[in-house]
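Appendix B: complex inputs.
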Amino acid sequence: MDCQWLIFLTALLFSATTDASHCANHGVDIVRNISEEGQDSYGIPGLSHTTVAGSLMHGLKEVEVWLQTIASGAATPIHRHSCEEIFVVVKGSGTLYLASNSDQNHPGTPQAYPIFTNSTFHIPVDDVHQVWNTNEQEDLQVLVVISRPPMKLFIYDDWFMPHTAAKLKFPIFWDEKCYQTRATKDEL
Ligand SMILES: *[C@@H]1O[C@H](CO)[C@@H](O)[C@H](O)[C@H]1NC(C)=O
Ligand SMILES: *[C@@H]1O[C@H](CO)[C@@H](O)[C@H](O)[C@H]1NC(C)=O
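Resulting structure:
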């Protein structure tokens, strides 16, 4: 075999291994330094996301943990999901918008709740919500725990969009890479 071809193949194999090492079942270290885990906006303005412990990334079955930083003026999309979600505000402050009127065909005007450092809140299954950093001075940092990963996200353009029109996003932004890795593996 041509030597250059071999080098190319080796490089390809190495890059594949490096990529896949972010995805489950490659022997995740017991203790990890989250400052050294990847952070990414995944194309969402004002977001920095780290999957601290994930289903597709680390092989968890029941829960998943994220650390997210939302810049001043930025927000999550208006969305819902059929899992439980618990937030702990590690730093900063903002506003939680929560629509709990699940008997209507759309979310409707949400209730606004101020959130602040050391506050915690949980989002009931399927309740439509949005988290905003409404503090102009500071980043909002939250630790998020969800049940039943990997998450299927339903995104709304506004609070009056019918539930049936909400757009499904699956896999969720930060799961895309590992989902593809897994899918490719399953095909082989
Ligand atoms: C964790 O990672 C950060 C960023 O690389 C580093 O500054 C820190 O020293 C690490 N902590 C330990 C205990 O290695
Ligand atoms: C958050 O709570 C911890 C534990 O009670 C406390 O040590 C810390 O000072 C609190 N931080 C703020 C900003 O309230």
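The chain is about 20% helix and 35% strand.
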